[in-house]
Amino acid sequence: MALRKPRDRRSWRALPALAVIAALLAAWWLAVIATRSAIFPTPWQVLTGAFELARDGTLWVDIGASLMRVAVGFGLAVLVAVPAGLWMGWVAGAFETLNPVFQILRPISPIAWIPIAILWFGVGNASPIFLIFMASVFPMVVQTTAGVHTIERRYLWAAENFGVSRATLFTRVVIPAVLPQIIVGMRVGLGVAWLVVVAAEMIALRSGLGYLIIDSRNAGNRYDLVIAGMAIIGLIGLSLDGIMRRLERLRIVRWRYVH
Amino acid sequence: MSTKIAVRNLGKSFDTDQGPLQVIDDVSFDVGDGEFVAIVGPSGCGKSTLLHVLAGFDQPDRGTVTIDGSAHLKPSAKGILIPQQGSVFPWLTVQENLMFGLNGQSMREKTELADHYAAIVGLKGFERSYPHELSGGMLKRAELARALVVKPEILYLDEPFSALDALMSLRVRRELRRILDEERHTVVLITHDVEEALDLSDRILVLAPRPTRIQATFKVPFSQPRKLSSPEIQELRDAVLRELGA
């Protein structure tokens, strides 16, 4: 008997998950029919609503606006969080000075910053970018700092033993050792950023997927578009996480995941 | 043989919740230039701490360590420590690991040296492999090659073969012995395996349980390669084991 190819096995493994999704869709459809709801749409109405949005171009504009805000806010957060985390992890004085501030700011929900963001930046793009920055910077700082703190002593000793310069120690030992943790922090940060952009667009903006949802409800209770927007947010969030997961397969960090 | 390492009245304790714990108590010994000294002792007697102090990674509370007559305070490439769990960088290839400690050569010279030492330890063809792609024995060889490539005067080996199975341990030991016959290094080996010490060393120091001190010294005056089952070596083995309380 011929052995089944790994690809086939993967397809078979996806079947239970697909079955659950199909069952949920069927239950949703039946519930709408059974309750004869005039407002809540069926999955088919959501699908046709999504096509309608795609055809008139609204969907692409809103997706582009949300992604742009996440890219800028998250990108700025990476630029700040990774060096700050490395610094705090490496220099005890920096950790002792900055960690209490980060620990106080970290538990504040990004949503709580919305009034401040509008006060400081108005209702343009700067507000959601600021909120995304605030939401994603803390998990990345914490993860990077913890990464430096948990580098195994034997690696630092080995580098010290060979008498390498501090710059070499940092670039060839500390950064590669922490990189897997940085990627974990980035995954968490990007997930939070995507959550926050939608919330921010619901309150303070006139474009983006969050705005699409709130506008669809306000302009005639178009719940088919509301749910279409939600589904698209979910799918894009999943894709963004998939992109971050691909970083874990890079050769320079694969060592962390092989045991 | 001139003295390479001189240890005098070394003492070391650690602070614990129950108060200071004396780990090393008044240890003194010399290691000659080019000599292979094995230090054996029961588990937890402070062997690794002693080696860390010798290599400069830990400071003693009292006493001195001198190398070539000068006080030894900090680790340097003059003496390379090979720790028990290994320290080959998992994010670098074998070749990159071997090139890590090289300074002052061109990239080409570094590559050639790294590949030469990879070949010496039997890792030819694995230069571009990552550590997670190697077996335990190959990893130990990579570790050894990375130490040897910087041409250290002293090798500090902390139970380097303990994680290997008996056959692999024997192979890597033979490899080490062959290299030491070609290149002159002073070696301090920490081990709990008496046969390993008898196989490799010129002298065996037996440590007492904590707080550790030198309990006995045995010369191993047999030429290499050694047949561990020979009556003389077996007799010496029994004497060492008796000192260890076995």
What does this molecule look like?
The complex is a heterodimer of chains A (259) and B (246). The longest helix of chain A is centred in the C-terminal third of the chain and has 39 residues, at 166-204. Helices cover 81% and strands 0% of the residues of chain A. Chain A has helices spanning 6-35, 43-55, 58-90, 92-105, 114-121, 126-149, 153-161, 166-204, 209-218, 223-247, 251-254. Chain A has one domain (41-257): MetI-like fold. Chain A is built from eleven helices and no strands. The model of chain A has no long low-confidence stretch (mean pLDDT 89). Chain B is of the alpha/beta class and 246 residues long. Chain B has two domains: 3-78 and 152-243, P-loop containing nucleotide triphosphate hydrolases (Rossmann fold), CATH 3.40.50.300; 89-151. Chain B has helices at residues 47-55, 94-100, 107-120, 136-148, 166-182, 194-200, 231-243; strands at residues 3-16, 19-32, 36-40, 62-67, 70-71, 79-82, 154-158, 186-191, 203-207, 214-219. In chain B, helix 4 (136-148) packs parallel to helix 5. The longest helix of chain B has 17 residues, at 166-182. Chain B is globular and about 50 Å long. In chain B, 41% of the residues are buried. The chains are: A mainly alpha (259), B alpha/beta (246). Chain A binds chain B through residues 154-155, 157-164, 172-173, 176-177, 179, 251-256, 258-259, and chain B through 55, 57, 75-77, 80-81, 83, 85-87, 89-92, 100-101, 103, 130-132, 150.
List keywords for this structure.
heterodimer, A: 259 residues, MetI-like fold, 0% strand, B: 246 residues, alpha/beta, Rossmann fold, four-stranded antiparallel β-sheet, globular
* Biggest beta sheet attributes of chain A: none
Helix content of chain B: 25-40%
The outline of chain A comes out as: globular
Instruction: Give the overall pLDDT of chain A as a whole number.
Output: 89
What percentage of the residues of chain A does DSSP assign to strands (E)? Answer: under 5%
Total helical segments of chain B? 7
Distance between the first and last residues' Cα of chain B: 33 Å
Structural class of chain B: alpha/beta
The structure class of chain A reads: mainly alpha
Q: How many independent structural domains of chain A?
A: 1
Separation of termini of chain A? 32 Å
List the secondary-structure elements of chain A in sequence, H or E. HHHHHHHHHHH
Supply Rg of chain B.
18 Å
Main-sheet strand order of chain B equals 6-7-8-3-9-10
* Radius of gyration of chain A using CA atoms only: 23 Å
Shape of chain B: globular
Oligomer: heterodimer
Architecture per CATH nomenclature, i.e. the level-2 architecture of chain A: Orthogonal Bundle
Order of secondary-structure elements of chain B: EEEHEEEHHHEHEHEEH
Question: Largest beta sheet of chain B, briefly?
Answer: 6 strands, mixed
Q: How much β-strand is present in the residues of chain B?
A: 25-35%
